[in-house]
Design brief:
The complex is a heterodimer of chains A (318) and B (390).
Chain A (H helix, E strand, L loop, with lengths): L8 E2 L2 E5 L13 E5 L21 H9 L9 E4 L9 H9 L9 E4 L13 E4 L1 H6 L5 E5 L1 E3 L11 E5 L5 H8 L8 E7 L13 H5 L8 E7 L2 H9 L3 H4 L2 E3 L7 H8 L9 E3 L7 H8 L4 E3 L7 E3 L2 E3 L7
Parallel strand pairs in A: 2-3, 3-4, 4-5, 5-7, 6-8, 7-9, 9-10, 10-11, 11-12, 12-13, 13-14
Antiparallel strand pairs in A: 1-2, 15-16
Helix pairs in contact in A: 1-2, 6-8
Chain B lengths: L2 E5 L4 H12 L6 E4 H7 L1 H8 L4 E4 L6 H10 L1 H7 L7 H5 L11 H22 L7 H7 L2 H10 L7 E3 L4 H11 L3 E6 L9 E5 L6 E12 L2 E13 L2 H13 L2 E5 L5 E2 L2 E10 L2 E10 L11 E2 L2 H25 L6 E8 L6 E7 L15 H11 L11
Parallel strand pairs in B: 1-2, 1-3
Antiparallel strand pairs in B: 4-9, 5-6, 5-9, 6-7, 7-8, 10-11, 11-12, 11-14, 12-13, 14-15
Helix pairs in contact in B: 1-13, 2-3, 2-4, 3-7, 4-7, 5-7, 7-8
The chains are: A alpha/beta (318), B alpha+beta (390).
Chain lengths: 318, 390
């Protein structure tokens, strides 16, 4: 599995591609726009001219920001930018135009599909300045290995999503020191060490035991290679009493981790549990389904053997 | 009306055409095999054509005896060209099969062109037309030339980069064109064989090639085999071996046009244009860059994809396919590989296939591809000049 589809809807809005040839009004009702660079690789878009014209993401953002109505646009999806460039090529112009874009409540940084870039090849940049420049943001998502240069304080952020093939330790450490009083939803794709994932179960104890985000009601520890080792810790964690939704999908959860989780009385109080893409046995899946909670145990994976060892892979890796 | 069929008679393509003739109440086609034609020369075909009204030329593929005859036939031209690996005719004719091995592709193409030329001679001698004429088929079998031809006709295509001589030359091409992701396609190949999705990270130089092939190394060096398994190559040695082997038989490099994704997979469309009209269509979906269906990929839900595109874009998609087919005006049918952009509204033609209409089970107006092409041909007022697109 990988990211093949572009978002068609996000955070209650319909997503449309911003058309440079015939720019739409940025404040159209119920719509947010995806901005992407244009290059020779995307040349078919411009075939009538057969010029393979390049338009950088910075120019596209400036163009959008200068459209009448941009100051009322509620969201933006930053799609593909120039390959080989870091996210800074989008972050800098977003910050530069922050006054024109002050109404932004939703921002997605780096919504590349697999056809546009390998997810492990997306070069992210420090997103702390972006959060600071947009105090009105409620929802923020990043795709690619995330970079967070310092702790952030953001009074309005309600959801944070890090979609990554691997999340480094220092990003989690900066989050630990960050202040998000309104944060309701946190999704971290911890990933695999093959692609920069460094999270060990103990690195997440603060999140599970210290109540860092008092309003949290959804926790996603997704695409996680160490989920079996994390499960016994999570099973005892007070965070389960606080949240309504637990998402451990896209990872390598097997019967071992599932057994530990199911031993916890806290799970039955959740409203929703997503475990899809897992390595559990069918009897174990049946136990989840008997839990009395809405549980997704779809997309069961089969162990592959390599040198006699079972090989299990997270969903978002290459 | 009776048809002659030049084909490998054991191949299911021959049975499909015979079935189509039966369905339309035509007599069984007079079949002449590629093997006997290639051993016998133009007069063998002319003799068959004399009893017929038209010819259908089928793929010579999936038959080793025919393949090595074609390689042998191309020996002289390939040696004269002096760029690509060649083998003497006498040696080629006894060449044992090494299943899936990528070799002598360019020489095969020279032989294929010579064979098609002989078909043309037989047609000229008898005045019998072909549903798809040999010159058009020859052009479709040279990807670089065919793409240039499409672009000149105003058909949108992925940006062409050239025909690299090897790995180093490809990297130089990428640098000067400032392209970091591309497809490398054997000019004379088919069915995705040897197609490489190649990317080089513009920042740190990492490289990744995705290709349905396997590299086998022994004392004699590295050999490349087509495979049903799509492999990711990342080491410098593998990348060089792979790309050098593909380029050695002439390959066309083009920028990677990002395909649309639908329900968790990338897809493109195979559209058969018959008598100027886009008819049969299959969505080929894949969890990887290469969409050919025999590589474990699946037909997608075309209706759902059309709904996602919307009427206007779907109309434009068909129009682009018809435009591509019109670049080969004397062909009664052509199979277009249409790339759909990530916005579901922009399009590029990746390829026009001479023998891409083998789509079992796919119907249009109650007809399979073979029957539809035959019926359109019979109904056409000037059968050797199909009408322009509507």
């Amino acid at each position: 599995m990988a990211f093949y589809d572009h978002l068609t809807h996000w955070r209650g809005y319909r997503v449309e591609d911003f058309d440079l040839a015939a720019p739409q009004r940025p404040d159209a009702d119920g719509v947010i726009y995806r901005l992407a660079h244009q290059s020779s690789e995307r040349g078919g878009f411009l075939w009538r001219k057969i010029t393979w014209e390049e338009i950088k993401i910075g120019q596209v953002i400036a163009r959008f920001a200068n459209q009448p109505g941009a100051d009322r646009s509620p969201g933006l999806i930053i799609g593909a930018w120039e390959p080989g460039e870091e996210a800074e090529v989008a972050i800098a112009p977003l910050i530069e135009h922050r006054r024109r874009l002050a109404a932004l409540r939703c921002l997605f940084l780096g919504e590349f599909t697999q056809e546009e870039n390998e997810v492990s090849w997306i070069l992210q940049s420090d997103f702390a300045p972006l959060l600071e420049a947009f105090p009105g943001l409620a929802h923020f998502a990043v795709r690619g290995v995330p970079v967070l240069g310092k702790p952030v304080r953001h009074e309005g952020l309600r959801s944070l999503t890090l979609q990554s093939p691997g999340t480094p330790k220092d990003v989690v450490n900066q989050l630990r020191q960050s202040v998000f009083p309104e944060l309701e939803e946190l999704d971290i794709y911890t990933g695999t060490e093959d692609y920069g994932g460094e999270i060990e179960p103990d690195d997440l104890r603060w999140l599970l035991f210290d109540n860092p985000f008092p309003k949290l009601r959804r926790l996603g520890i997704r695409n996680c290679e160490v989920i079996d080792a994390l499960a016994p810790i999570l099973a005892d964690a007070p965070v389960l009493d606080q949240i309504e939704e637990l998402d451990l999908s896209l990872g390598t959860l097997s019967d071992k981790g599932a057994e530990a989780l199911l031993a916890s009385p806290r799970l039955a109080k959740l409203k929703q549990i997503d475990l899809h893409h897992h390595y559990m046995s069918e009897p174990m899946m049946a136990r989840w389904q008997a839990l009395g909670v809405k549980v997704d145990v779809g997309d069961r994976q089969e162990d592959e053997e390599f040198d006699g060892e079972p090989m299990r892979a997270v969903a978002i890796a290459e | 009306m009776r048809f002659a069929l030049l084909a490998n008679p054991e191949n299911r393509r021959a049975s499909f055409f015979a079935a189509a003739c039966g369905r339309l109440g035509l007599p069984a086609p007079a079949v002449i095999s590629w093997d006997s034609f290639l051993s016998g020369g133009p007069e063998t075909l002319a003799a068959t054509l004399r009893g017929c009204d038209a010819l259908r030329i089928e793929s010579p593929g999936e038959n080793w005896q025919v393949e090595r005859r074609l390689i042998a036939l191309g020996a002289e031209a390939c040696a004269a060209e002096g760029i690509h690996p060649s083998i003497a005719a006498g040696e080629a004719i006894g060449l044992p099969e090494d299943r899936g091995r990528v070799r002598f592709g360019r020489q095969w193409y020279h032989g294929w062109c010579a064979a098609l030329e002989r078909v043309g001679e037989a047609m000229a001698a008898t005045g019998i037309p072909a549903m798809n004429p040999p010159e058009a088929i020859a052009l479709m079998f040279d990807k670089a030339a065919a793409q240039a031809h499409l672009a000149a006709t105003g058909v949108p295509i992925p940006r062409p980069l050239g025909t690299p001589s090897g790995f180093d030359n490809l990297l130089a091409m990428m640098a000067s064109a400032r392209v970091s992701r591309l497809f490398l396609k054997p000019c004379h190949g088919s069915s995705g064989a040897g197609v490489v999705a190649f990317q080089r990270h513009a920042n740190d130089g990492r490289m990744l090639a995705i290709c349905p092939a396997e590299i086998v190394r022994d004392g004699a060096g590295a050999r490349l085999y087509n495979s049903l398994r799509v492999t990711r190559f990342t080491t410098a040695a593998d990348l060089r071996a792979l790309i050098d082997a593909v380029c050695a038989e002439r390959a066309h490099a083009e920028a990677w046009f990002p395909k649309a994704g639908f329900r968790g997979r990338a897809f493109d469309l195979r559209v058969v244009v018959i008598g100027g009209e886009a008819r049969h269509c299959v969505a080929r979906t894949s969890a990887g860059p290469i969409t050919n269906l025999h590589l474990g990929n699946a037909r997608g839900d075309l209706d759902a994809i059309c709904r996602r595109m919307g009427d206007e874009a779907w109309h434009e998609a068909r129009r682009v396919c018809q435009l591509a087919a019109r670049a080969f005006p004397r062909c009664a049918y052509a199979a277009i590989d249409l790339l759909v952009g990530t916005d579901f509204a922009s399009f590029a033609v990746a390829e026009v296939n001479a023998f891409g209409d083998l789509l079992p089970g796919i119907q249009s107006q109650g007809q399979d591809t073979y029957t539809a092409a035959l019926a359109a041909w019979i109904d056409s007022p000037e059968p050797n000049k199909p009408p322009p697109a509507r």
